[in-house]
Each structure stands twice: as C-alpha cells, then as structure tokens.
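> @MW can you paste both from yesterday?
MW: sure, first one:
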Amino acid sequence: MHWVTMWGNAQSTVVPSPAVYAKDITLRYPIFIPFSGKRIRITFDNFCCDEDVRIEGAYLSLGRDLTDETIGEPILLTKNGSSSFIIPKGESFTSDPIDIDLKEGTYLIISFYLKEFTKLTSGVDIVGPLSKGYYAYGNQVLKRRLDINTSKSTSWVYFLANIDLYTEDTNEAIICYGDSITSQDWPDYLLLALRKAGIRNRSVVRKAISGTRILREYTCITYQSYGYSGYHRFEHEISSVAGAKTILIQHGINDIIHPVGVEVNPFRPMTDLPTSEELIEGLKFYNRLCKKYHLKVFYGTLLPIYGWRTYQEFREGLKNEVNEWIRKQACIDFEKEIGIARNGYIQFLEDCDSGDHLHPSKEGYKRMGSLAARTLVDGL
C-alpha cells in the first residue's frame, strides 16, 4: 500500500472583481474516485493569496454523482486534532489521515466552511465531464443537499489542492500540466478513456491554469488570474502529487500569442515574445525537474492557432519550430490528431474547433483524451 493522489488542481489567482472577500460561505466539491483506498488525506493550498485563510469546519461524505447530494454521515477533517485550522499565506497543509473505505467508481464530496471574511483570490477555473463545484451562503457543510435557494454551481476550485488515497501499490497518478487547454476537458476524457480501455489503476491529476505562460508572468490586476510562470509554479505543483510516475505537459502557446505591443495593450509588449530556443529551454527545464521527481515526461504538441485574434505568420512559424522539437521527444501529437493542413496553414478540424480557433470543441477534447490514453496504454 502507498499514498497516491487521486485528484488535484493547481492554484492560481482568481479573475479580479470588486468583491474580493467572502464571509459565511460553504464550498462543496464532488470528486470521482478512480480506484479504491482505505485511508484519505486532503491538502489545502493558499499558494497565491497574500493573507491567511481560516477554515471553520471541513467534512467529507460519500456522494451519488456530480450533484451536491451526500450519502451517509459526514466525517470531520482535522489538522493536529483540531477542526478549525489556518492555511498560512503562500503555504499549504495536509489534513490528518482518516480511515475510510472508498470504492472505485463512486464519488467523494468535500465541504468546508469559511466563517469570517476570507480573501477568495487563490483558486483555479476547471471544467470537464468529471468536474464541478458549488458554493452556498451560510454554514451548510452538514446538509445532505445544499439549499437550492442559497446555492449555485461554480467551476472555480478554491484552496483545495490534492486528495490522496492510501491504496494498492499498483495504483498511480498521471499528472496533466498546462494552461487553459488543460484546465478544460481533455484530462477528464483521458481518465474516462483509460477506464474504457480497462485501465482502472490510474488517476489523472490536473495542474493547469488558464492564461499561464512558461517564461513570464503578469503583475497587473487585469491578468492576475493567468498565474505564475512555469518557472515559478512547476515544481510547487508536481512535487505535491503522491504516487505519480508520468506527466503529460502541454504548455507554451500563450507565450506565443499574448505579446501584441504596448500600443495595442500596455501589459503585453512585444519584448515578451520568446524565441523558439527560449521556449524549448523552458520545456527542457520542466524535464530536468521531472527527472528529480522520477517522472516520465510526455510532451503534447501545441494546437493550431490559425484564425485566432492575434494570429500572424511569425507566430505560426514559432509554434511549428517548437512542435518540431516536441515531436523528437516522447510525444503526444495533439495537433496532428485534431488539426489539418490547408493552404499551407495548420487549422483545426471543423468539428474540433470551439469557434475561437485556439481552444478545442468538446469533440476536440474527447479526441485529445482518447489519443493520450492510447499513447499511455501502449506504454503500460
């Protein structure tokens, strides 16, 4: 038996709004359980907030599905025996382990209560067929179902970083690391495709932040939700995942498409535009850290950008140079799977484009997840 992270997220800074603080609020997250375990521990992370956060009660329950309905009695989470705990600014902590019999294919629901004014700036936006969250006014952590009049679904995950199971030695985690393309659906479809192929001893742990770049990060409030650079955040995220042996990295497109010049956007100077050599060095930096943590690396090719609002031919050339290097590594060729060459440019297949010519459609994400699963199955 060993500890394996069955579910996880990166931490970023949420999209800014005038309402920065929340009070007297319940957060609830249903989590799919990919394999069975006998013990559980939860990691809360305050990596991107500059104030301490106090949780006044956190519970886990069994759930029916991605709805907020719980089954059975809630179990209190503690830290050093206390039910009230603080997450220091910029830090994380892991709860005391709890003995519980969790069955593969069922759901776990995590609920926690923020009683006092809490700065809700540390979180990440995640979507997919296995991803959903809820918030509710008042202390509703012990309710079997949240009050429909005072609760609402949300795709934002606050402070909840990793859920670890004490499980069989044959079970392990796969990390999916990247930007908005990875914070959206394909990691969920990867897990579903693995299970369909009969691979039920793997979890998929998503460490992705929309808008993030490898080489640079924003300091302005306008783009604060784009988070830290890969150089800043990569080790923090991968080092927290227990029982991982494999990582899939699909990152770098924002370094290419963001810079437009200060005359267009004061926060996106053209001096931010990297060379292909600089981007490739960033990917090599990831690989060096992965060796430190004994992770086998698969790189995903960057997706088509033809038609995106900042598209220019020099960006296409830069992307293609990076992809040429990626294809010489252990590679998952996402671009080839959901793209096609037309008139000298690589474009999305028609049914794989969400419409913005940068992010895939649901069909595109399904194909990405299936391709990643096939690649991994071949190596299992």
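MW: second:
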Amino acid sequence: MSNLSTASLLTKKDFESNQDVRWCPGCGDYAVLAQIQKLMPQLGIPRENFAFISGIGCSSRFPYYMETYGMHSIHGRAPAVASGLKLARPELSVWVVTGDGDALAIGGNHFIHAMRRNVDLKVILLNNRIYGLTKGQYSPTSELGKKTKTTPHGSIDRPFSPVAVALGAGATFVARTVDSDQAHMAQVLKRAAEHKGTAFVEIFQNCIVFNDGAYDAITDKSVRDEARLLLEHGKPLVFGKNKDKGIRLRGLEPEVVAAGEGAGDLVIHDESAEHSGLAFFLSQFDAPKFPVPLGVFRAVRQPTYEEMNIQLHADAEARKGRGTLAGLFNSGDTWTIE
C-alpha cells in the first residue's frame, strides 16, 4: 500500500501518543491538542512526514503528545530548529508550537526572522498572557497594569500584539483564534495547514491556574458577540449579535457605526491584499474601544525560502558544475606550512 493511500486511512487516534497529557485540568492547551490531532488525518500526509518542534513552556510539551516525529528543543529557538529541518527535508510538514514568552521574549529574534523568511512552517502560538510553567510571571503579552509575581505593583510594559509583530515582519499568513471556539479554531488551523509558506496562528488560550479569565471579555456568551469581530474575506467588517454594527474609516481613523448607517462606507476585509496595511490596521483593534478581530488577517502566496534555496543551488550547479568536498577545501587562498 502506498504512503498516500495509507495516509488517507489515518484517524485522530493515530496521532495520539501513549504519553500522559500533563497539563492542568481545564487548561486551554487540551482543546488545541485535540483540534490538531483531528486535523492531521485530513491533510493526506503520511504520519512519518510530520514533525512538531517546540521550545520551552507549558505549550512546548506538545511534541510528547503527538504520535509523530518531533523535538522539545531550546527556549525560544524552536523556529531556528524547525527552519533547519525544513531546509534539510523540504518534503516534511513541520510545525512549531510555542507560547507568548517562548516566542516573543527570549525567542523574539528567531520568531521575526522565521516570519520574514517565509519558510514553509506552521507556527502555532498559544497566548495565555502569562508565564505558566515557571509559575505566573508576566509575559510580553500581559496587559498594562498586570499584577504578577514579577510585577507586584502592576506591569508598566506595553504588551506586544503577536499578530502585529508577525505582520510587521512580513508573514504571508497570519490568523487568530480562541481555544473555546472549537469550530472556528478548526477552520483557522486547516487554512494554516494548507498555506504554502510561513503560516502563523495566534490562539488565545486560558491558563486556569495563573491567569484564569484573561479572555472572558470575548469568550463569555453574554458579551462575546459584541466584543469580537469575525473576519471574512470579501465581506464588510460587521459584528454584534444581529450584525448591526460595523467599522468604517473617518480619514485614517476607524470608528464603530450602526451597520445600516452608510453601509457602503464599511471597510471590506481583504486578506489577499499584497500589502498588509489593512491587516496591520486590524491588528491594532482591542477592547473595549473596538471588537477583537478573529480569523485570517492575511493570506498571500509568495515564494518560500526553501523553494528559493533549491533554485539557488540549481543555478549555481548549472554555472559551475557539481562541486566536491576536496575541491572546496583546496579552493581560494591556500598555503603550505613547512
């Protein structure tokens, strides 16, 4: 039986490892793990062609729980390890699972360069706005004024928007979802998996022990329709329980209006725009002034790093022929020691 036909017979259970899942009861990571395990069989890829790479943190336990190849690597360096793997084995589907501290603090440099290079990686950032594994210190995404063990009087650091950072670095696919909305998460993750190039997904994830309720403003059923903006390509930016509110521009400034008022003036979402101006504009929305956008901010096709790398090698070989290691060692400036 071929690898392709074998892949089509896989189920979620085939991607569940025999390791005990050791996250706190009620952690949002369980929902993400379940959705990714459900997604894998849908991709038509042999199980041995998946690899999950992580750094350090609660989210970085992920590779243990996936019945695939993987590596629990170094704090903040998962994108570098994953990039090397993808360049060496371009046929693999390589996934990075990281957290807000792992990716945006010690790993910030590696994160932005993975985004700009457009290596064909799927980067999933679980954002709980706290350091969970090390017991509750503030992170780069913790809100202004956040009181934690390391900021007992409240944080005076302005938080990063992971989506804005990814867009600013030139990522070709950028999306956001939330752990409590299983259907939406499934759609977003499938879109990311199908994208050719770096696909970045921020997942709002609840830490029930150290930052419980961080996203109640957009997940509580009584308020979520008014507090979140579901992005749909080619459709106006509308929200509210009855889709009765919209976003329009007054000059360069956004404003919330009743959807019936000048409906033709509402901003139309275009995830495929070559320039990421609209996507970046949306990445700045935050409660309570504006609804929080969820969905795909940007999805454009550009040459991937590994495609260009393969072409670079082919062009060099066509010009100079296939080299040898001995030839390399004896090229350029050489000298003899007597």
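> thanks! The first strand starts at residue 50 and ends at 54.
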